[in-house]
């Protein structure tokens, strides 16, 4: 295979060198490096590594990069502090020559981790972009979606009637959020299968600290196609050939550039589909491995909203967030210099024993479960949090009511992503059976 020089140079500078460094540090036993390398060396349970990072202190130095923290108070403080900015593509290299190479070899694909994506823009641009879509996620707007989420879940579950086993990821947990968010973006149902395929490559690129060359090359090609698809869909919406939607409102009433429109659509799609899919899958595993908790929810269905909060706390999907200090800052007694990064282990913050009593225990009645940080904090707090909560509640309660004997039929398969940690395969028996040991 002929290697495109420009693309390969970009990968080496932005991903390859970091990947080699992480592997070397992982081999030496560094727990953060091992966490960031799970795409090349998967681990069954990431939380022992998180706890090893915590043992080093509330904040601990990262060689050549800055700091790392799994402390809930520190994570919250950094996320809401305006003196920190989001990580950018240029931050992949600490050297000016590296940053110059990254800029010169930019493949110009639709990358949700590059501005003007709302995910990595800072105020005032972030405020402007967020305002355009916020009205679609108000309580009143979401109440209108509740019946539709029920309908989608019920239709999918009826389709499983009579089956003995299935892969719940492929046939249920992916399909609820994608159906809902596709309708919100006026994407036709017959195009959803394409979105499934693209989402896998998006995850491999933006969910890892340093993607492999193979993943980067394949994802780049996939994202070039996705860029063209979104451009065509936006034009379809602009012509008025699609129903009212978030995208229609933005295209017709906003003043965004074509690139901003595409990135906004891509982000809403990814955030509204991929993350909720992973939480749903891990939620099923947690509940099946804790039958006492599931039995309590069957006896008391009013407990589901709090159970959703505990699910979000107990096994986080967005395990990692990064920020860069724009000036010298004192954080809880730690001196962070301008330009230094802080890697925030959100999943670790959600298991901080200073906040959550016996955090390793899954307890759907936990009084302060809602204090988790799974939806972020500050200006970048997840806009679709209420929608995700609704889909989790309806999707899980409907599943276990329809199939009360549901059981694991094999080992769940996890992806190799620390940024979008979740399941790729979840074999279940719909008629009961032996639960696989945790």
UniProtKB/TrEMBL annotation:
Heme recorded as keyword: yes
Origin superkingdom: Bacteria
GO molecular function: cholest-4-en-3-one 26-monooxygenase activity; heme binding; iron ion binding; steroid hydroxylase activity
Cofactors, names only: heme
Alphabetically ordered keywords of this record: Heme, Iron, Metal-binding, Monooxygenase, Oxidoreductase
GO terms (BP aspect): cholesterol catabolic process
InterPro entries: Cyt_P450, Cyt_P450_B, Cyt_P450_CS, Cyt_P450_sf
Transmembrane spans: none
Pfam families hit by this protein: p450
Similarity comment: Belongs to the cytochrome P450 family.
PANTHER family documented for this protein: BIOTIN BIOSYNTHESIS CYTOCHROME P450, P450, PUTATIVE (EUROFUNG)-RELATED
Name the UniProt record assigns to this protein: Cytochrome P450
Lineage, broadest ranks: Bacteria, Bacillati, Actinomycetota, Actinomycetes, Mycobacteriales
């Amino acid at each position: 295979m002929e290697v495109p020089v420009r693309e390969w140079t970009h990968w080496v500078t932005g991903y390859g060198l970091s990947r080699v460094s992480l592997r070397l540090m992982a081999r030496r036993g560094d727990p953060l490096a091992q966490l960031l390398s799970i795409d090349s060396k998967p681990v069954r349970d990431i939380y022992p590594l998180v706890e090893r990072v915590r043992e080093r202190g509330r904040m601990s130095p990262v060689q050549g990069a800055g700091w790392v923290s799994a402390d809930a108070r520190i994570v919250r403080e950094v996320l809401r502090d305006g003196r920190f900015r989001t990580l950018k593509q240029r931050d992949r290299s600490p050297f000016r020559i590296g940053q110059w190479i990254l800029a010169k070899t930019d493949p110009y694909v639709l990358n949700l981790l590059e501005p003007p994506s709302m995910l990595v823009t800072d105020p005032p641009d972030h405020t402007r972009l967020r305002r355009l879509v916020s009205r679609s996620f108000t309580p009143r707007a979401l109440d209108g979606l509740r019946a539709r989420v029920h309908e989608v879940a019920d239709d999918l579950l009826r389709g499983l009637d009579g089956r003995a086993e299935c892969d719940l990821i492929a046939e249920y947990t992916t399909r609820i959020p994608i159906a809902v968010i596709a309708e919100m973006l006026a994407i036709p149902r017959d195009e959803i299968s394409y979105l499934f395929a693209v989402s896998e490559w998006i995850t491999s690129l933006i969910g890892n600290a340093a993607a492999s060359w193979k993943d980067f090359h394949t994802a780049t090609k996939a994202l070039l196609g996705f860029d063209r698809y979104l451009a065509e869909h936006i034009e379809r919406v602009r012509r008025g050939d699609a129903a009212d939607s978030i995208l229609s409102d933005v295209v017709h009433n906003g003043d965004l550039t074509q690139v901003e429109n595409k990135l906004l659509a891509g982000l809403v799609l990814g955030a509204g589909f991929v993350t909720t899919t992973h939480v749903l899958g891990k939620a099923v595993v947690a509940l099946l491995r804790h039958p006492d908790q599931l039995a309590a929810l069957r006896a008391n269905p009013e407990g589901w909203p709090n159970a959703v909060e505990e699910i979000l706390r107990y096994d986080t999907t967005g395990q990692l967030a990064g920020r860069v200090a724009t000036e010298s800052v004192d954080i809880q007694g730690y001196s962070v210099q301008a330009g230094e990064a802080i890697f925030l282990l959100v999943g670790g913050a959600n298991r901080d024993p200073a906040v959550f009593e016996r955090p390793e225990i899954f307890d759907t009645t936990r009084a302060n479960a809602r204090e988790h940080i799974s939806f972020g904090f500050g200006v970048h707090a997840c806009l679709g949090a209420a929608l995700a909560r609704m889909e989790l509640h309806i999707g899980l309660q409907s599943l276990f009511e329809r199939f009360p004997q549901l059981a694991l039929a094999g080992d769940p398969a996890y992806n190799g992503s620390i940024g979008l940690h979740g399941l790729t395969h979840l074999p279940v028996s719909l008629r009961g059976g032996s639960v696989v040991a945790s």
